[in-house]
Write a structure and sequence with these properties.
Shape: globular
Helix content: 40-55%
CATH class: Alpha Beta
Strand content: 25-35%
Protein name: SRPBCC family protein
Number of strands: 8
Structural class: alpha+beta
Strand order of the largest sheet: 1-2-8-7-6-5-4-3
CATH topology: Alpha-D-Glucose-1,6-Bisphosphate, Chain A, domain 4
InterPro entries: ASHA1/2-like_C (IPR013538), START-like_dom_sf (IPR023393)
Radius of gyration: 17 Å
Number of helices: 8
Family: Belongs to the AHA1 family.
């Protein structure tokens, strides 16, 4: 249990807004430090074989201007690629996804530590944001950062799908949802609104019964 709490507490979460060509976008930012060299973290985030070990299988023309597709998830275009510090992609899922981009920024903190930042900027349907707030994508990204943390120290679960339904995973997602509720409130959302979106997010990721 303490390890789950540590993994949650290792991440700084921030919620905001930004103007994009399609209108007002919502932003979620995650930041944490990994005990790994920047080149290793970059390789883990860009090598398709390594990505499949901690995130999802990926296919496509994985170069600047090329397109990628994550198995059963998002796809899009590789917009910026500046090794080993910056990767930006469009993040499109489903029909008529609208504006959605993800940017990963890395910075070295000494030879064996790397500050990892992931920012997801998207125009979100108001009804979805009103129900779930930032947790809808935030919990998923927390899981990705956990997967990367385990991969970098050689502790990736043998069966990630089975882990998703474990008590440990349910506890992780519950605590992640609460952390995003707190980040939403810290961004200026009324406490009762943040609490309601947190409850809806938890019920979605950790259904009871």
């Amino acid at each position: 249990m303490s390890e789950i709490v540590d993994q949650i507490n290792d991440v700084h979460r921030q919620v905001g807004t930004r103007e994009v060509p399609d209108g007002e976008a919502r932003t979620v930012l995650l930041r944490r430090t990994y005990d790994a060299a920047i080149e290793d973290v970059w390789d883990a985030c860009t090598d398709p074989q390594r990505i499949s070990r901690w995130f999802l299988p990926v296919s496509g023309d994985l170069k600047l201007g090329g397109h990628y597709q994550l198995e059963g998830n998002a796809g899009g275009e590789i917009l910026r690629c500046e090794p080993p510090r910056l990767l930006a992609v469009s993040w499109l899922f489903g029909e008529n996804p609208g504006f959605s981009e993800v940017e990963v920024r890395l910075s070295a903190e000494g030879e064996e530590r790397t500050v990892f930042e992931l920012e997801h900027v998207a125009v979100v349907p108001p009804e979805m944001w009103d129900q779930f707030g930032p947790g809808a994508v935030g919990v998923g990204w927390d899981g990705a950062l956990l997967g990367l943390a385990l991969h970098l120290v050689g502790q990736t679960p043998a069966d990630p799908a089975a882990w998703q339904t474990s008590d440990e995973a349910r506890e992780f997602m519950t605590r992640s949802s609460a952390a995003w509720g707190a980040a939403y409130e810290a961004s200026g959302a009324p406490a009762e609104v943040a609490a309601a979106t947190m409850r809806a997010t938890t019920a979605f990721y950790v259904p009871q019964g």
